[in-house]
Amino acid sequence: MSNERQRDADTERALKELFAQAKPRLDPPAADADEIRRAVHAEWDAVTGRRVWRMRAGVAAAASVVLAATIFWGVGPKPNASPAVVAHVERVLTSGDTVAAGVAVGDVLLAGTTLSTAARPIALRLATGGSLRLGPMSEIVLTGTDAAELLAGALYFDSEDRRAGSEFVVTTAVGTIRDVGTQFIVRIDDGLQRLDVGVRDGRIALMTSDTSDAAGAGERLVATQDATPIRREAIATFGADWDWAERLAPPFEINGRTLDQFLAWFATQTGRTVVFADPTVELEVQRTILSGSIDLEPLQKLSAVLATTSFHATLESDGRVVISRR
Predict the structure, then answer these.
(1) Domain 251-325, what fold?
(2) How far apart are CA 253 and CA 93, in angstroms?
(3) pLDDT value of position 118
């Protein structure tokens, strides 16, 4: 043990003598020092930059995992989550004690609800605005607050009171219809092989698995399952094609409203155009205040309301309704 200590002491003494004889190294030329400094800084930036990128990549990867988990959770079953309120029943056409679809006016409908009308059409007021009406012998699924699937029969949609920019989507076995602020009617028939979309006002877009097209007021698009091109036809904005939907028009309270406000409602619900026999008639109509309460289908209500005034209406074959004095 004493020999090892002696060797360590000798080694330490030799090193001290060596260091005592050593002289400082000469500084490199200034240009070389600058170049070395730039090289060191570049290497440092490269190393730390990669570290920062890896850190950010790690954060992005973690964020993507969180997003994926959020999406998965969003579409998956949620414990104790309640379905969204989609609509409430606004009108039901009944016959005696028979009620369409087993629902009553005021009933609240949730997402996922399936409605079948048999021979009794119904009208819904959507929670996000708009009137959705289901024709006789029809069936739909309320798939969401702004969407429905038409399984059979016909539906009518009116975008009244909806917020700007929102759209309503109708899916069928043949194609998908998107409204662009409009009134339209959709029929699916021939064993779900034929889709017919008629536009009363505004525009719609129709997409099938093979193609797409758009239509405006007074146009009809017909698509089939056999991949033939979408056919475009003219359609009247009033009359037989729309009769059942007009019967489901939302109530309009006339008490305290002007006659021209009522006539505007009538035109919207029937697709007809109201005109006046002369400018003085129009001015008088704007000043006429209505009273009372009348709840009838639009055409019947027109006659009943005008009967309480000094005006009458003439229905022309071209869809015009001429208002004149008695």
Answers:
(1) Phage tail protein beta-alpha-beta fold (3.55.50)
(2) 19
(3) 84
Q: Where are the beta strands (DSSP E) in the chain?
A: 85-92, 108-110, 114-116, 122-126, 131-134, 139-144, 147-158, 169-171, 175-179, 183-189, 194-201, 203-208, 212-216, 219-224, 231-234, 273-276, 311-315, 320-325
How many other C-beta atoms are found inside a 10 Å radius of the C-beta of residue 87? 24
- The token duo for 279 is 């400018």
Instruction: Domain 85-242: give its CATH code.
Output: 2.60.120.1440
pLDDT in tens, 103-145: 899 999 999 999 999 888 999 999 999 999 999 999 999 999 9
Q: Return d(Cα 271, Cα 262) in angstroms, integer.
A: 14
DSSP assignments along 94-110, one per residue: -BTTB-GGG--TT-EEE
Tokens in use for 57? Answer: 């990549």
For residue 26, the SS3 value is coil
User: H-helix or E-strand containing 63?
Assistant: helix 30-75
Identify whether the C-beta of residue 46 lies closer than 8 Å to the C-beta of residue 39. Answer: no
